[in-house]
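Re: the multi-chain job from yesterday

Posting the exact lines I submitted so nobody has to dig through the queue logs.
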Amino acid sequence: MTSISAGTASVPRRRSGLRFTDRRKLFLFCLAVPAVAYVIAIAVYPLAQGIVYSFYDYNLLRRGGRMTFVGLENYRELLTDATGQRALINTFAFTFGAVVFEFVLGLGLALLLWRDSRFNRIALAFLLIPVTITPLVVGLIFRALLAVDYGYIGYYLAEWGITDPRGLFAGTSTALPTLIFIDIWEWTPLVALILLAGLKSLPGDILEAALADGATPAQRFRLVILPLLLPTVFLALVLRMMDAFRVFDSIFVTTGGGPADATNSMMVYGVKQGLQFFNIGYASAIGNVTILCIAFMAAAFALLIRRADVRANET
Amino acid sequence: MTKLNSTARRLGAALLLSTGLAGAAFAADKPLDGVTLTIASQNDQFAAVIAKLAPQFEEKTGATVKVDILDYGSLLTKTQADFVGHTKSYDMVTMDIVWAGQYADNGYSVDLTDWIKRDAAELQIDDIYPAALKYIGQYDGKQVAFPFAGYAAVMAYRKDLLDAAGIKVPETAEDFVEAAIKLTDPSKKIYGFVANGQKGAAVAQDWLQYNAQLGGSVLNAEGKPVLNSDANIASLKVYKELFDKAAPPGAVDYDWGGREESFRQGLVAMMETWSVGAPGYYDPSMSNIVDSVAITYTPVGKGLPPKFGFGGWGLAINNDIDEKKKEASWEFIKWLVSPPVHKEMNMLGAGSYIRKSTLADPELNAKYPFLPIIAKSFENADGDYRPRIPQYPEIQDLLGTAVNAVLVGGADPKAALDEAQKQAEKLF
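And the result, structure tokens for all chains:
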């Protein structure tokens, strides 16, 4: 028996000239090839091409679409030009405003829904409705609601003198907060859902021990729940941050980046440069700066998650 | 068996011959049999009408015509991608008057100059307004598209409101501003004026119209941008005054649709607009002002020569398609602009005029009483107040942001136009 199995094992080795570990490696490599090819085709190649284009003055509509190498000029232009700076500031302001409020409200909701009851389960289902609507449609709905001529909300807000008679989207100081509000309306339930999942997976014995030791609710939250929940908190924050930073749909259909440049975001600016003016070089630079910003923030959060994870496990 | 076979063979041959002859006769009748032409069309009033008339062309020539109706943004993006990628998705493209520079610069479309010369008699070229031929498609000595839908900038107003206030129909831009402010009474929800205020193309195009009438211009005589000229700054101040004192509050966020709707709903006394929208004011199914609306010339600044804004669409033939399809497309264009078809197109509400005979047609005049205003405007047309240069989209966007910032952001007109000028200079 032993000799037979040894014999069968030795035959293919002689045929292919490869050892078992090499064959295994080859097999695993073959398995990975389709996935790697897919990633190269849809992510790496466009990204690399975008990086190359960003060093060129390349407009499809002018000079027959010829490319001229300009080095870092597109990046310099983006970071020194008033419109580019405004877009970058707006995007950070939008992301910060939206994510902070969504976290605070989402945590509150999650704590309220923590206790497992029939009411909470039904409430959660209703709360998730905004998440199921496409951001573009959400934008269109709010645009209609807030219109001063016929909007159910906008008309009365203007009529009662609560807002400017021209409406919330028409004011340079109110347009961006209104868009942040829309984002909060749509995405707070998602943050609540993620945090709720985190809360439900907290170890019950630690919480019971804290209760037995006579910790007040505030102490339990600050000293037990929050440290244990931190990895989930960071996960929720990083997901929302990445998503909010590339906001496009809701702005595009409500203000188009206006009034003036008050709500111009990086994605709105990039799409305009790339798909309206076909300014491929400059649009690529805008896209790359956006990716870099998201990558830095995501890396920072990833680091925080890891540290929080280690600490939570130590506790 | 052999005999039968030979008879059958003879019969078969005769049958084949007769079928062949009939086929040849059929082919002579329908020279474009089997050809399919695809048009990328702007979603203006003419689009549905062209789609409706296309089967008539098929009946006459055998060519099938498909009309892909797109909104302005999609039309621009899809057709540019088609031209740049040489994918030949579209045989013909409706070309906005302001795209002529780009088309000529990049050779996107067939230069029709020689074909127009060759077929001048068939086209009855003298019947077509020279302004239509010049502005819709002529650029740098090339004819990059053939006009089929000319629009005149006109002023639509409410006779009842002007009569009630004892105000004469304004003939100068100055009178217009004065009347607009006088007619405004927010407590009754009546406003003297409305125009597009929304950031981007909407506000830029409307301001450029008023700007031209007040003596401003985008380019100087050398073709260089002068966005911050004194005349432009002065006209922007007037435009802001109109928005502050005479426009419905929501107008700062209106694009064409919002502007037209506010007028049709009876909120507004006077509005400058494209003639193509005029049939809608007389349509009771969508308008509250059917009996009180009237159309007249756009008022020009005191002492300035009478010039009326001209816009519209031409049909351009994709330069990438094969010769046979190019010729077939040209046949379609000639058919579409031929006097009988063009009349039918306008009877169906296309609002697209290029021919003197169409605008003078009694049947059309009975249906649309404002046609003489369009005819007179076409004779003094200015199709260059929105410069048809390759850089136009970017200039329009710069102005769209600057003017919107002045209207709603409280920016100073001079500062806003100075900034736009700085950006515009980089494009040249």
